[in-house]
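Anyone up for a design puzzle?
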């Protein structure tokens, strides 16, 4: 009997969890905050990529140095673009009139 009761409770709880929650309505301040958060997230991704690039360069340099010291023949490294430092985070909000003009303009088809 307890198993049936527990199964029924879990089933009813799963129905409640699956209920769709409506999206919050954002005012202008909320939209600006969301845009800033999105810009900061994109910048964080660029910083992570830069740090990964620097670590890969350091690792490759150590490998080639060790291989050269051991007398192993190595192929020349493939030419890769230099690591681009994204710099400090600076948020420049887009004016509402410019954002509306971009959204209203029709997309060009190629």
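Challenge accepted. My sequence:
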């Amino acid at each position: 009997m307890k198993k049936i009761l527990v199964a029924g409770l879990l089933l009813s709880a799963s129905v409640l969890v699956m209920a769709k929650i409506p999206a919050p309505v954002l005012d202008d301040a909320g939209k600006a905050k969301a845009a800033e958060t999105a810009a900061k997230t994109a910048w964080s991704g660029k910083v992570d990529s830069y740090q990964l690039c620097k670590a890969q360069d350091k690792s490759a340099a150590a490998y080639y140095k060790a291989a050269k010291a051991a007398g192993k023949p190595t192929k020349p490294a493939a030419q890769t673009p230099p690591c681009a430092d994204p710099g400090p985070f600076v948020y420049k909000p887009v004016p509402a009139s410019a954002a509306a003009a971009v959204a209203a303009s029709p997309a060009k088809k190629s």
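A detail worth pointing out: The two ends are 66 Å apart (CA to CA).
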